[in-house]
Amino acid sequence: MTPRTIKTALAATAVLGFAFAGMANAEAADDTLVIDGTEIVTRAPASAHLDGALPELYSGWHFRDADTRAMEADDFDNPGMIYVDRGLDSWNTVDGTEGKSCASCHEGPESMKGLRAVTPRVDAKTGKLMNIEAYINDCRTTRMGAEAWGDKAEAMTDVMALISVQSRGEIMNVATDGAAAPFYEKGKEMYYTRYGQLELSCANCHEQNYGNYIRSDHLSQGQTNGFPVYRLKDTKLTTAQGRFVGCVRDTRAETFKIGSDEFNALELYVASRGNGLAVEGVSVRN
Amino acid sequence: MTRQIFIGMAISALGATVAMAEIAPENVEFTDGAIAQSLSGTAGNAEDGKKVFSTAGLGNCVACHAAEISKDIPFPGTVGPALDGAADRWTPEQLRGIVANAKMMFDGTVMPSFYKTSGYIRPGDAYTGKAGTEPLPPILSAQQIEDVVAYLQTFKE
């Protein structure tokens, strides 16, 4: 074969590959998530800002096996729900020099309803990019006189789980314009950057190859609507940025830090890719 | 510069006495995506190549590629095309080029370059998540590339 015919042959494979990709996407399990009688939107049309990058949105739930999917559908079987209870204890616990708990200012956790679906966002009052972790630590340090919780502290992920459940079923609707626009652009640039010695971007795995297997891992679209997730492999909750660390590390790259400007922007961008999917309120993944 | 020339000369001097020298990643020459010469100077061993193909810490080719011949290796991935008949489609020189740096054959491919040491964005120290310093060690050694190429030559239909 001359190089030219090789290229043509490849072009043919590429076209075929595309057809297969369509089929592979059909490998997203054809199933419906109903929790406690409420149907959760796990499949939705892609929003316009994606410009056709994804033909349709799928929650990561569709790419997990039947047992894992069933576990999330039943709050008694969902191991993540234990942490929601623990989060409620933390919510009511006084901490810090001001003698306050979350409940002192916010009353019940249901006051947080809706928040999970619109974060990360640029806070209207401060102009700062905030995710739920940032809001929690802002209250702890400036209002309670308490220490900030660490990125992976159990108390942090417990309260995040509690807050996410309040928005279960609500449709993700993260703003991408106005004050959010620069963060969106930065996150988008990162999403398509091929990091590390393996030179792989988020898009290489989660846009080009969702539905395919990378060894035994069934690649999803890498959506964040289910976070915090209970990972069976870790037997604990993981945040979206915690997951990003693992994905970047797996490209043989230097990761970014949780809470860094880079990951905060990436989190906003990735969340916006899932606009249209519902908040799952502690999902289960492997 | 002077230093590079000096090393270059040292290598050619060596080449004159020792029949075959290893070609360092930065000195590899590609022709239409293929590499004409053996990278190690020692013939590849297909059995060792199979280990490179299947081991996660080495080539981990099975993460992305399935084939009838390698079906005893569990859970092959589907990110890359099935490799059945790869040896019928490609010459050994082309296979060497594909494994060493697939981007020279397939523009923009997701397949990683296994014999490359620099030009990365945020290079890491293997899978630690910590920063690495270029030049990084290539993912596979010259001999491991030759071995996996020897293994690929058994992929005939």
List keywords for this structure.
heterodimer, A: 286 residues, mainly alpha, 3-stranded mixed β-sheet, two-stranded antiparallel sheet, 11 helices, disordered N terminus, B: 157 residues, 5 helices, 31% helix
Q: Layout of SSEs?
A:
The complex is a heterodimer of chains A (286) and B (157).
Chain A: H1 3-25, E1 33-35, E2 38-40, E3 43-45, E4 56-58, H2 66-73, H3 81-92, H4 102-106, H5 115-118, E5 121-122, E6 129-130, H6 132-144, H7 154-166, H8 181-191, H9 202-206, E7 213-214, E8 217-218, E9 229-231, E10 236-238, H10 240-249, H11 261-273, E11 283-285
Chain B: H1 2-17, H2 46-54, H3 86-89, H4 92-100, H5 142-152
Helix pairs in contact in B: 2-5, 4-5
Q: Per DSSP, what share of the residues of chain A sits in E-state strands of 2 or more residues?
A: 5-15%
Low-confidence stretches of chain B: 1-18
Total strands of chain B: the figure is 0
Mean pLDDT of chain B comes to: 91
| Quaternary structure of the protein | heterodimer
Q: Biggest chain pair contact, residues each?
A: A-B, 34 and 37 residues
H/E element order of chain A: HEEEEHHHHEEHHHHEEEEHHE
How large is the share of residues in beta strands of chain B?
under 5%
What level of helicity do the residues of chain B show? Answer: 25-40%
Q: Pick out the low-confidence regions of chain A.
A: 1-26
**Strand order in the sheet with the most strands of chain A:** 10-9-11
State the share of residues found in helices of chain A, binned by percent: 40-55%
